[in-house]
């Protein structure tokens, strides 16, 4: 899964599309190369309200920032969040994948270059992206 993401310049379109009830994003800063430990715009549901907030990308231990869908229920780092239903949507304009042979990065984005949502799990103020959902 991705190890870098491009954060959108503007999140107002996604706020309308996802019918956000509460905006807690505050000092949001777009980034073209957001790495793990960066704060990402994330949508969570709390008491039937959709909340747009910032969460740190990565769980404790800090090397845990991506999850595989097939191991969510079995890996200790993700099991609690998965069983508790703490899912989230991570907002991005795209993400980067590297070719194994020569470590060449490739940007992956929607054809219209608009914002996309990526599946995630949240734990407090932290989130992890989920691959394979």
> What is the CATH class designation?
Alpha Beta
As a whole number of angstroms, the C-alpha radius of gyration is 14 Å
List the quaternary state of the chains: single chain
CATH homology group? SOS response associated peptidase-like
- pLDDT < 50 runs, ≥5 residues: none
Estimate what percentage of residues fall within beta strands. Answer: 35-45%
- Strand adjacency order, main sheet: 3-4-10-9-6
CATH fold name: hypothetical protein yedk fold
Give the CA-CA distance, first to last residue.
12 Å
Per DSSP E runs of 2 or more residues, the count of β-strands stands at 10
> Portion of residues in helices?
10-25%
3D structure, described in words:
Strand 3 (39-46) and strand 4 form a beta hairpin. This protein has two helices and ten strands. The protein has a single domain, classed as SOS response associated peptidase-like (hypothetical protein yedk fold, Alpha-Beta Complex), CATH 3.90.1680.10. 31% of the residues are buried. It is mainly beta and 133 residues long. The strands form two sheets. The protein has a five-stranded mixed beta barrel with strand order 3-4-10-9-6. Strands 1-7-8 form a three-stranded antiparallel beta sheet, with no helix packed on it.
């Amino acid at each position: 899964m991705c190890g870098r993401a491009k954060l959108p310049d503007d999140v107002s379109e996604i706020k309308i599309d996802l019918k956000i009830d509460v905006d807690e994003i505050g000092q949001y800063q777009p980034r073209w190369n957001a790495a793990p430990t960066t704060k990402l715009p994330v949508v969570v549901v709390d008491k039937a309200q959709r909340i747009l907030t910032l969460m740190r990308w990565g769980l404790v231990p800090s090397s845990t920032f991506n999850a595989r869908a097939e191991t969510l229920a079995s890996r200790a780092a993700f099991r609690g969040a998965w069983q508790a239903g703490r899912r989230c949507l991570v907002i991005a304009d795209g993400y980067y994948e590297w070719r194994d042979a020569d470590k060449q990065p490739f940007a992956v984005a929607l054809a219209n270059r608009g914002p996309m949502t990526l599946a995630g799990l949240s734990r407090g103020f932290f989130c992890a992206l989920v691959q394979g959902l």
